[in-house]
Amino acid sequence: MSPIAISRLLILAAVWGASFLFMRIIAPVLGTLPTAFFRVSIACLGLLVILALLRVSWDFNGKLKACLVLGMINSGIPATLYSVAAQVLPAGYSAIFNATTPLMGVLIGALCFREPMTPAKLSGIFLGLFGVGILSGAGPVAFDAKLMQGALSCLAATACYGLAGFLARRWLDQQGGLDSRLSALGSMLGATLLLLPLFSYSVLTQPPASWGGWQVWASLLGLGLVCTAFAYILYFRLISEIGPVKSSTVTFMIPAFGVLWGAWLLDEPLSMAHLYGGLLIAVALWLVLKPARA
């Protein structure tokens, strides 16, 4: 990869690592659906303003429908699942679970997109899942039904990311590709349309006990504008440049940022489970991503 692509990966890792911190602040106060809806809707509005200021041509080349569906898979569903996890898991845990995205990408690529499955990749998948199990059972959080709910929510979200990377390459990069800013806008619009009726129903039937203070809403702005709008522009740019699997390696760097943000700003405890789980997932990623022999 070029130095520019590597620098973009590092920036994206730092930004997405901070997203788990913001969700940990927001989700316990507002709940699952409000957190997810405000995240994608604020990102959508932010992208509208960015594209208007930059005078980007609003030509989706007939790919608007694909962007909307992709947004539901890549943004709407994962945002909801991570909001569920944020209510029961520390930010560092969610960030490390998120590192299984390349493993999910390899598995989905082999099952659905005829990507080659090598013994090293298969070993990496099982080793990565073992690392997730170590992290779940050996950390400072008690191993119970809530922890399992949070872990499964994170894994389901990474499966959505793994699928969406291949769909983005197939749907958006053909016939000349699509501007990454338009891809991000269409994605956020699709996620907003998916979550709007669910959010409305949840507010009418079971509104949050509190809508939070300035800290919650400042975190929402950071989550929506920086960790979602700006981050997805970078993400779609990377998919076009280096492909979905290599782009998903950003999740290898996210845990370090997620754990550090959580420990520094939320005083979340650190334990050897972070080290054990992170090292196993790191080795798994190396097995998955190392170049295959000719």
From TrEMBL:
TM stretches of this protein: 9-30, 36-54, 66-85, 91-113, 125-143, 149-172, 184-204, 216-236, 248-266, 272-289
Keywords: Membrane, Transmembrane, Transmembrane helix
Compartmental location: Membrane
Any Gene Ontology CC annotation: membrane
Pfam families: EamA (PF00892)
Keyword check for Transmembrane: yes
Membrane-topology annotation of the record: Multi-pass membrane protein
Predominant subcellular localization, coarse grouping: membrane
Sequence ranges assigned to domain EamA in this UniProt record: 9-136, 149-289
Name of the molecule in the record: DMT family transporter
